[in-house]
């Protein structure tokens, strides 16, 4: 969480996360921002007085192919929306959000909004007239307001940068959103630290005050504290959870402890979680080491160290196995893909499995999972899901995904990126360098 503004105090004059400095004229500042926005959309250059956080967001929005006249896509409606909201972790703290923000939103003709980690709005509540006005730009439950879909906006940008952020008037990338001002803060899972979504307050220029940013930040912190109380430390008998996607060192939640594992221990636990029946020493050697000269003694020493890290009773031998089932985020993505829940699978995919690992079995699993998910995204043809993948570090060179994205969102930016990638494939190149990487399977 940012310490940008106190919930009840003034922000520093140089704070880039606050939209207006104390004493600034909102009307004049909005006019200057509109001119700067036009300059950016026409020439691609950022001029004063645009804040650095907004300038960077504008550039990301443009790279994602967002146009200044775009409209939010409503992805979830009726029963699908109801089911998704009921199962979302933030449903548990909606009563807290309403208690802390509901009266403020209604009395001030503002809106309380909550989105998921993909910028999809789950709840939009507040003053009825303000809700009707917001509905004209599809600021409604079920609509996707991710930065890659709707450009710079407080809830979408807050989850993109994982910080509380305030967006004022023409700082919004899309023109029809520019009459609004909003402030949002990300909410994290208190056990894993992962972003669950964001809480947002949206309304008029009156929200362009340091207090509104501090307010949503304080509400987000209160929600995280409430989630921690509602999800107490798990008993040792409960299923441990292994998080290994998008990180070189996995994290294990077991017996109320959060254990950060070394790379080798991460590889071992990922493999044992996939093989509850256990693996022999020879099988683990082949799975972990490319070098056939590595001896069983080396592996036994590594497993002894891992047993000390995990504590007694979790790792058994002959064969090597975990004594209780372990839920791994890799299995979560696989199950969602098997049931056709592509959006849910993409949400759970935080990045390649242990991306720095060279263990043969981990490399195969990493490629297999990435290939299955990207194939499902290409088949689904959802422009926002494709854009999320294409603009992630692991997807920025993925030619097939860029081609699929260009087919469903043929903006000038997307077409230009596709031409660049295709040009690198056809140009003479050192195949040990960039061109070879362009054609490699994402890992």
From TrEMBL:
It comes from the Bacteria. The keyword Transcription applies. InterPro entries: GAF (IPR003018), GAF-like_dom_sf (IPR029016), OmpR/PhoB-type_DNA-bd (IPR001867), Sig_transdc_resp-reg_C-effctor (IPR016032), WH-like_DNA-bd_sf (IPR036388). Residues 256-322 form the OmpR/PhoB-type domain. One of its GO terms (biological process) is regulation of DNA-templated transcription. SUPFAM superfamilies: C-terminal effector domain of the bipartite response regulators. One of its GO terms (molecular function) is DNA binding. Transmembrane segments: none annotated. This is GAF domain-containing protein.
């Amino acid at each position: 969480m940012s310490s940008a503004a106190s919930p009840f105090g003034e922000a520093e004059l140089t704070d880039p996360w606050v939209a207006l400095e104390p004493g600034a004229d909102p009307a004049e500042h909005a006019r200057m921002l509109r001119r700067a926005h036009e300059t950016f959309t026409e020439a691609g250059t950022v001029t004063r007085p645009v804040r650095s956080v907004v300038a960077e967001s504008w550039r990301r929005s443009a790279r994602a192919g967002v146009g200044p006249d775009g409209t939010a896509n409503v992805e979830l409606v009726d029963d699908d929306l109801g089911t998704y909201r009921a199962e979302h972790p933030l449903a548990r703290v909606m009563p807290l959000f309403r208690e802390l923000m509901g009266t403020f939103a209604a009395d001030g003709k503002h809106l309380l909004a909550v989105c998921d980690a993909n910028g999809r709005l789950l709840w939009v509540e507040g003053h009825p007239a303000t809700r009707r006005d917001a509905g004209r730009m599809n600021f409604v439950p079920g609509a996707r307001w991710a930065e890659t879909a709707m450009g710079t906006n407080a809830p979408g940008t807050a989850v993109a940068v994982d910080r509380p952020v305030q967006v004022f008037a023409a700082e919004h990338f899309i023109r029809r959103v520019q009459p609004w001002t909003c402030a949002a803060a990300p909410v994290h899972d208190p056990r894993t630290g992962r972003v669950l979504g964001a809480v947002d307050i949206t309304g008029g220029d009156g929200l362009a005050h340091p207090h509104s940013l501090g307010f949503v930040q304080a509400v987000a912190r209160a929600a995280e504290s409430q989630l921690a109380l509602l999800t107490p430390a798990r008993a040792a008998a409960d299923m441990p959870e292994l998080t290994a996607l998008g990180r070189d060192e996995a994290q294990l939640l077991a017996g109320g402890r959060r254990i950060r594992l070394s790379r080798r221990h991460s590889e071992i636990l990922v493999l044992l979680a996939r093989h509850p029946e256990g693996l022999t020493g020879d099988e683990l050697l082949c799975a972990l080491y490319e070098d056939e000269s590595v001896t069983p003694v080396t592996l036994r020493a590594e497993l002894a160290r891992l047993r000390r890290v995990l504590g007694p009773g979790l790792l058994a031998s002959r064969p090597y196995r975990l004594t209780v089932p372990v839920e791994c985020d890799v299995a979560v993505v696989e199950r969602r893909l098997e049931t056709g829940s592509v959006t849910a699978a993409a949400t759970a995919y935080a990045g390649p499995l242990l991306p720095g690992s060279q263990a043969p079995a981990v490399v195969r699993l990493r490629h297999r999972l990435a290939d299955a998910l990207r194939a499902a995204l290409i088949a689904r043809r959802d422009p926002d899901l494709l854009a999320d993948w294409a603009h992630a570090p692991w997807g920025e060179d993925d030619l097939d995904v860029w081609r699929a994205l260009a087919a469903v969102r043929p903006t000038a930016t997307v077409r230009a990126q596709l031409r660049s990638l295709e040009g690198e494939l056809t140009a003479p190149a050192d195949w040990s360098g960039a061109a070879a990487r362009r054609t490699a399977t994402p890992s």
